[in-house]
Amino acid sequence: MTSIKDVAREVALSTATVSRALRGLRGVSDENRTKITEAAQRLGYVPSPSAVGLASGHTHTVAVIVPHVARWFFGEVVQGAEEVLRAAGYDLLLYNLAGEPAARHRVFQTDLLSKRVDAVLVLGLRPSLPEQSRLAELGRPVAIVGAVANGLYSVSIDDERAARLATCHLVDLGHRRIGYVGGSLDTLDFIAPSARLAGYRAVLRERGIRHYRDLEDVGDFSVTGGRDAALRLLTRSDRPTAIFAASDEMAIGVLRGARELGLGVPEDLSVVGIDDHELAAFFDLTTVAQPVREQGRRGAERVLAELTGVRPPDSEVLPVELIVRTSTASPRDEG
Amino acid sequence: MTSIKDVAREVALSTATVSRALRGLRGVSDENRTKITEAAQRLGYVPSPSAVGLASGHTHTVAVIVPHVARWFFGEVVQGAEEVLRAAGYDLLLYNLAGEPAARHRVFQTDLLSKRVDAVLVLGLRPSLPEQSRLAELGRPVAIVGAVANGLYSVSIDDERAARLATCHLVDLGHRRIGYVGGSLDTLDFIAPSARLAGYRAVLRERGIRHYRDLEDVGDFSVTGGRDAALRLLTRSDRPTAIFAASDEMAIGVLRGARELGLGVPEDLSVVGIDDHELAAFFDLTTVAQPVREQGRRGAERVLAELTGVRPPDSEVLPVELIVRTSTASPRDEG
DNA sequence: CTGAAAGCGCTTACAG
DNA sequence: CTGAAAGCGCTTACAG
Q: I need a labelling partner for A297 at 20 to 30 A (CA). Which of A69, A143, B31, B279 fits?
């Protein structure tokens, strides 16, 4: 493994000068800079990240904390963030919270992160209050992506607005019994679910539609979860004429559940989701589109800006858009 | 940031002893070990990864090289690998090759990786010969997951066999004009595509079925790609009565394409995929199931075994299984 | 069982 | 513009 000393020896200069030249710092003669660059190239020299980290305090690594890598939304966000980080020469350390519940606690250990990374990206979950102060103690740039947390930069959509768009669409079509399939209701970690539920409820209230707690169910943000929720909701005597699912994957599950029960979409049931997942068009699913990969990019850009001393932007709210396809229609009864 | 010196001072012992105690090395009195552990805990001491890396040469980090994080298969594999690595106290450095073509070249730079990680997991792609020698030069454990490469440990399925199962199933049903939708044919980086194509061709040959080059198309392993390929294949005058797609995502795209053309499945077209993707059951898609997350786990376990000096296993081939659903049936004509 | 000292490979003031 | 030296925070022989 060739070290900076090898390069220094090769060009008969000090390691200090080699270090400066290779990092593009000013204060090295053009002649020497060229000589050094060429020698480094020739010897295949690559600085040791550990040594750089120890000496400079910068690891050129960003932690990305994700609730579940294998979910579509997070895969896309990670992809977006990775593009930006890689282009800037930063490595991406992935912390997946799925599975082991203790993972979350461990990951947010301040010291652990601060000694290991230059910045942190938190995807799709709202840090708890203690976690927020931990993140603040980090003293490193932090970005929340796909969720919001007061005091911390975040890039996300307006989840309540997205839910309102979806619900309004159903109400406008004439639906009055509208089911909701969301995340688990007891964990408020994920901001999106609760904001989406809030948007749904708000529209019902504002439009003077009676709200039934029983029509709210949990789909766990998975296709299977959505299907199971649909089976529960649609076998009720007073089954809803429409279901708003807080994600397209759950909405797809709802479609499946409806089909299993022999219910036609949209004749017997209207379904609307959120995301504009790759498969939404496939299913002719009406949905509220959000820019997912872009959120990952913005989050990464934000921490990089802070890292390089550029004035970072304020929290950003990206636009959403209702995309009407054929999974929604007026309910039969009210024609 | 509390350092090992702080802990040493706190307990009035040397940093050497603290280091040994905290790493669980033998040769520390029980009394001191307890005292040290408690002090470290109390002070919230976490060793600096950079310092540990520099001093010991071990980074406790594993590189995971993935062609495309946002694809289902890779998300699952990463998830599996992450579970195992995390449990062993290793961090996961994600290298995504999607997008920028230069990424691949850069990532395989030996020095870069060897100074940064203790081991490497290569997912879903077969390293080129130069890349293989680079990986060998690494002098670190390497595992190929979801592909094979001579000389390197790999965990995968038998792709040719999977393709044979799928194709035989169609032939057994009576199909003679069987289309194939795979990855791009010119890049042989991904072993799976070519092995799957080979399996498809072999079965046709063995069963004395005329093989039309024109019935082989490219679906790019995406839903959209599968759909586009289906539109091309199914608008031919001599359209196939069945299509074998080399992944479920492409198969789902094929279903979509068929629907757009007004073709019924399985009456007008039989479709079979590979994976048993979460959505395969949803689509009643006949497919060849493979254990995906498990491949990620095995790969991670393998490099960990090598790292800890345990005798590592030989390359592993995990079983596949044909799952017949209702997307396949005998062709109408010969019905 | 414990410690002093060297060393891992860089970067960073400080001089010049 | 360049270099000598200290230091980053650990681990690792080497002594004892």
A: B279
